[in-house]
From TrEMBL:
Organism: Candidatus Thiodiazotropha endoloripes
GO biological process: bacterial-type flagellum-dependent swarming motility; chemotaxis
Matching Pfam families: FliL (PF03748)
PANTHER family to which the protein is assigned, alphabetical: FLAGELLAR PROTEIN FLIL (PTHR35091)
InterPro entries referenced in this protein's UniProt entry, alphabetically: FliL
Annotated membrane topology: Single-pass membrane protein
GO cellular component: bacterial-type flagellum basal body; plasma membrane
Family, as annotated: Belongs to the FliL family.
Stated name of the protein: Flagellar protein FliL
Chain ranges passing through the membrane: 22-44
Length: 168
């Protein structure tokens, strides 16, 4: 009888140890499943946001409408320090809305004034390379959009292009 009681106690100990191992394994599997589910949620959720952002960009492009190119007539003519001492630049700009095009036409004198001020600070030697001309384009675009913002324009200028560039 003593043997039977001892073996029953051993069986109960093994059952308790087996049950606790089973509980630990189930807990680990549950944690892994939850972690995997959360990882999948966050990874797949990012694609949805990217898709929403792409759709928003497409909608903005559709709202822009067709590009309109406006020429500044007559070309800009500026005296520069040093040699060459005269600069003549034909300029066109690109906008995407009729209200913005009308705003540019209406404020032409103010815009020309600011662009002439910018051009008069340049010297001929520094404008001979392609990189310098591209940098001047970027400066002019920034100055133009600054004026548009100050005058509370209905948008901004998308691009500025040189249609002629003469230095003498």
């Amino acid at each position: 009888m003593a043997n039977e009681e001892a073996s029953e106690e051993l069986d109960l100990g093994e059952e308790k140890s087996g049950k606790s191992k089973l509980i630990i394994i189930i807990a680990i599997v549950a944690v892994l499943l939850i972690g995997g589910g959360l990882a999948a949620f966050f990874l797949l959720g990012g694609e949805e946001e990217a898709t929403e952002e792409a759709a928003a960009e497409e909608q903005v492009e559709e709202e822009k409408g067709p590009a309109q190119y406006l020429d500044f007539k007559p070309p800009f003519v500026v005296n520069m320090p040093g040699r060459p001492s005269l600069l003549q630049i034909g300029v066109s700009i690109r906008v995407y809305s009729e209200p913005m095009a009308e705003f540019i036409r209406h404020n032409d004198p103010m815009i020309r004034h600011h662009l002439l001020d910018l051009l008069s600070t340049k010297d001929g030697k520094s404008l001979k390379t392609r990189e310098a001309k591209e940098a001047l384009q970027a400066e002019m675009l920034e100055a133009l959009n600054k004026v548009v913002k100050e005058l509370e324009g209905p948008g901004e200028v998308d691009g500025i292009f040189f249609t002629s560039f003469v230095m003498q």
